[in-house]
Amino acid sequence: MKKTSLLLILLFVFTSLSQAQLISERTDKKVIIGADLFTDISTGKAYDNFNLRSINQGFSVYSMFNFQFDNSPHTASIGIGYTGHNFYMKGAYLAKPYDETTVFEDVVYDYKRSKINANYIDVPVEVSFRIKNKFKLSAGFKFGILAYGKSKYIGELYNDDVTYRVKYGKINNLEKYVYSVTFRAAYKSVHLFMSYQFTDTFKNGYGPSIKPISIGIGVRPF
């Protein structure tokens, strides 16, 4: 299942970028489509039984429209996108996703995976500065609207050598809106990506404080 999902994502990205290049050429490079792969580092405060592992991989896809400044190679852009964050927990799982306050339980037995997945519809805004012909620096802002959140735990719960799969398709207390600042440093179609979400993923006081710094690599046609 994981391999199939990865192949579908790669196929989608490849197809989108190929189409984006054609669209970009036909519209004088006013439309772009891109994708980012990143890891999240949480900067939030400590929370009961909640700790994240070092690598928390996520991804985003988006399409943007460029506005060219008069007699300048620099551009401003606005668009729409989708971002999925995966927060992998160490030694705990989400036990009560529907309660007024989010509760995590310790896992003292063997487990394979324990994570929270938060997904957003994004509205990204950027200003890009082209340096010579091949380099570009971009700074911007991203407004995210929560699409859905879910959790998954695979492992033992009672030291009975039974692997349990605990899944919840909804998580209460996730913030409906999140805000991030973004930065990109690009060479041709490849760029380094960084963003900082300065709003909490959970409502203040009702869950862990997760304000991720996302660092990764992305591709998009110029």
Q: What's the gyration radius in Å? A: 19 Å
Distance between the termini: 34 Å
Q: How much strand?
A: over 45%
Task: Describe the main β-sheet briefly.
Answer: 8 strands, antiparallel, barrel
Report strand order across the widest sheet: 1-2-3-6-7-9-10-11
CATH architecture: Beta Barrel
Q: Residue ranges: pLDDT <50 for 5 or more in a row?
A: none
Briefly note the CATH topology name. Answer: Porin
Number of domains: 1
User: Quaternary state, please?
Assistant: single chain
Secondary-structure element pattern, one letter each: HEEEEEEEEEEE
The total count of helices amounts to: 1
Derived structural class: mainly beta
Mean pLDDT: 85
State the share of residues found in helices, binned by percent: 10-25%
- Kindly provide the name of the CATH class: Mainly Beta
Shape: elongated
